[in-house]
Design brief:
There is one protein chain. This protein is an alpha/beta fold. It has two domains: about 15-115, Aspartate Aminotransferase, domain 2, CATH 3.40.640.10; about 130-269, Aspartate Aminotransferase, domain 1. The protein is built from seven helices and eight strands; from the N terminus they run E-H-E-H-E-E-H-H-E-H-E-H-E-E-H. The chain has a four-stranded mixed beta sheet with strand order 1-2-3-4. Strands 5-6-8-7 form a four-stranded antiparallel beta sheet, covered by helices on one side. Helix 6 runs antiparallel to helix 7 (about 250-269). It is globular and about 55 Å long. The N and C termini lie far apart (about 45 Å). The chain binds pyridoxal-5'-phosphate. Pyridoxal-5'-phosphate binds near residues 34, 81 and 212. Pyridoxal-5'-phosphate binds next to loops.
């Protein structure tokens, strides 16, 4: 479609001004960043964008509308994979887009022309999910924090990447701008080859392998060579990264599941 893209360091903040070019129309932000979990300084990016008449679109799926108020922080267009926490039960695919009044007509025209629509059954499932979103998020957050803290004490773990932890890049922006976390975070292992992480993943009792987080169930994925996906910044950690989505199961059962996983991992190392 003739669109050019420039990727940026998630910690760039106001420095994004230096990347804005004559043809820049939109800055697309996501906080925390996919998989590596850095929290961006969204108000600073929005201020720089607006100075140059550029719009800010944000994927706010992680925070949900409850934990980050996009329009109060300078964002112009808010996008959610409602598939995740809003639906909450991994049984429907839903997307939402909301805009400031100035852009709403353009959004309506575009979605009409592209034929975007949601089936009545999927809308029903999303509305049903919304009713319990707040309490589900609280439970995901509590379970996630318990497991993240436990992981910090494991000898195999180099560091945990959880926005509520001081060690997470951009933690200060999470504290300033967000009102909560949830069950999605990552941790980096000190070492590990694919055979070891495969042994870890296979045989999990509660954690399933899957990308689409935000449902009631726990998920696990491993990533090797994160640096390969990065162009704007480097990645210094050498061990693999594990992303968890901590679900609504009993966290002690999940810890026992991970304990067994580490045992399988250590046998292959
Ligand atoms: C932050 C984020 N946004 C959007 C998506 C896309 O979700 P969907 O495939 O339900 O549209 C995903 C994941 O799959 C995601 O992690």
């Amino acid at each position: 479609m003739g669109i050019e893209t420039t990727f940026y360091d998630p910690m760039i903040g106001a420095g994004i001004s230096n990347l804005i070019q004559d043809n820049t129309k939109i800055i697309f932000v996501e906080a925390p960043c996919s998989v590596t979990m850095e929290i961006q300084d969204i108000p600073a990016i929005a201020k720089a964008a607006h100075k140059h008449d550029v719009l800010v679109m944000m994927d706010n799926t992680w925070a949900t509308p409850l934990h980050f108020k996009v329009f109060d922080h300078g964002v112009d267009v808010s996008i959610h994979a409602g598939t995740k926490y809003i639906v909450g039960h991994s049984d429907a695919m839903v997307g939402t887009v909301s805009t400031r009044a100035a852009h709403f007509e353009q959004l309506c025209n575009m979605s009409y022309q592209m034929g975007y629509c949601l089936s009545p059954d999927d809308a029903y499932l999303a509305l049903r999910g919304l009713r319990t979103l707040k309490i589900r998020l609280k439970q995901h957050e509590a379970n996630g924090l318990k497991i993240a803290k436990w992981l910090e004490g494991r000898p195999e773990v180099d560091h945990v990447r959880h926005p509520a932890f001081e060690s997470c890049p951009g933690h200060e922006y999470w504290q300033r701008d967000f009102t909560g976390a949830n069950g999605l975070f990552s941790f980096v292992l000190k070492q590990g080859h694919e055979a070891a992480t495969t042994a870890m993943m296979e045989g999990m009792k509660y954690f399933k392998m899957g990308f689409s987080w935000g449902g009631y169930e726990s998920l696990i994925l491993t990533y090797h060579g994160i640096g390969r996906y990065r162009t704007a910044t480097g990645w210094t950690a050498t061990g693999p990264l594990v992303r968890l989505h901590v679900g609504l199961e009993d966290p002690d059962d999940l810890i026992a599941d991970l304990e067994n996983a580490f045992e399988r991992f250590n046998q292959k190392i």
